[in-house]
Amino acid sequence: MADPVSEHVSHCILCGKCLQACPLLKATGREELGPRSKSDLCRVLAEDPDKLSETDAARLAGLCLGCGRCREVCSQGQDVPGLVAALRGAHPNFKSWLWKTWLTRARQLWSPSSKAAALIPERFRTEKLGPMLKMLAGMTGGPGLDPFLTPRAFPDDWRGERMLLFAGCTANYVQGRWLTAALRLLDGLGADVLPGDFACCGSGLKGAGFADEAGEMARRNVAVWREAGRPRVAVFCASCLAGLRAYDAFESDGEKAQWNQALLPLSVAVRGIEFMISDNAPDRLGYHHPCHAGKDDPDRTWLRALLGDRLVRVTDEQCCGFGGVMRLAAPGLTEPVNRACWEALKGADVVLSGCSACLAQLSATAPDRVEVGHWLETIR
């Protein structure tokens, strides 16, 4: 059997493009945390596993945000997040097991954990656990944003279109308002929303090194789509959409192409809706561009066109610092990444995004009097 780490190692020509793209390196200035260093160390580990101890290998596996920005710019096709995920899978530890449990038991854990975290007094929140507890407490989002967009006219483009809605774990278990808003929009568009019992997208598990569990979820979700007649699948979480696009659980290349064509960002479907912006709309809005949305971010495109001059801040190169399992493995290293993100958003009173993971991180770290929410929360 091939070594799972060596399968992801390719030749590095030392061009340095990944160093310019890595938000962890930019925020910390520590080149040993950059993609090239991880690639070099993993190559050493693949050639001679005894050169790194189990502890060193596990620590190395934890020091990656998994944002994928280095992969986008690498001319050699080096997939450092995939390499690190393979390393995590080969050297699991308690924190990765905890992350796996958190993701695979979302239905049972997320809502009660969020409610319980909100009840813990501030004085009992230690320096290490405080940010995590705040993120847990903020997953439900409190009362949510004050809506200021009202649909006035719907196009006929999607009328009668059969669709499945992939809501994602956050909307299904703790942010029901997102799911409700999405269903209202699809109803207004006249789409025929089909029932479908999707599992988690699996991207968080895959990045943490649990390829088998992620693959099982992919097969289940593809089966749901297949059994529904292979219709369009509307998605409103950028990370979920990226995870779904990365699936490789198909009967043929043709079916894989059909799946990718079926995936529909919800913001693309709503572009033809005529919205009225009410008087309570904030004058200074920000938008956080999720790393996994890629360069062609449909949420950003739609909001820029709709909000015009009200959209005063938009991140581009900044990562929110969530980092998946790294949030548990090395939270101190994610903090400067998060600070750089908020520096780019300075001046916005309300920050929108379309990624559930980014929103969890930004809600937990928002400056005083700055509100954070999914763009679905802005719609009445």
UniProtKB/TrEMBL annotation:
<keyword id="KW-0004">4Fe-4S</keyword>
<dbReference type="GO" id="GO:0051539">
    <property type="term" value="F:4 iron, 4 sulfur cluster binding"/>
</dbReference>
<protein>
    <recommendedName>
        <fullName>4Fe-4S ferredoxin-type domain-containing protein</fullName>
    </recommendedName>
</protein>
<feature type="domain" description="4Fe-4S ferredoxin-type">
    <location>
        <begin position="2"/>
        <end position="33"/>
    </location>
</feature>
<dbReference type="InterPro" id="IPR009051">
    <property type="entry name" value="Helical_ferredxn"/>
</dbReference>
<dbReference type="Pfam" id="PF13183">
    <property type="entry name" value="Fer4_8"/>
</dbReference>
<dbReference type="GO" id="GO:0046872">
    <property type="term" value="F:metal ion binding"/>
</dbReference>
<dbReference type="Pfam" id="PF02754">
    <property type="entry name" value="CCG"/>
</dbReference>
<dbReference type="InterPro" id="IPR017896">
    <property type="entry name" value="4Fe4S_Fe-S-bd"/>
</dbReference>
<dbReference type="InterPro" id="IPR018136">
    <property type="entry name" value="Aconitase_4Fe-4S_BS"/>
</dbReference>
<dbReference type="InterPro" id="IPR004017">
    <property type="entry name" value="Cys_rich_dom"/>
</dbReference>
<dbReference type="InterPro" id="IPR017900">
    <property type="entry name" value="4Fe4S_Fe_S_CS"/>
</dbReference>
<keyword id="KW-0479">Metal-binding</keyword>
<keyword id="KW-0408">Iron</keyword>
<keyword id="KW-0411">Iron-sulfur</keyword>
<keyword id="KW-0677">Repeat</keyword>
<dbReference type="GO" id="GO:0016491">
    <property type="term" value="F:oxidoreductase activity"/>
</dbReference>
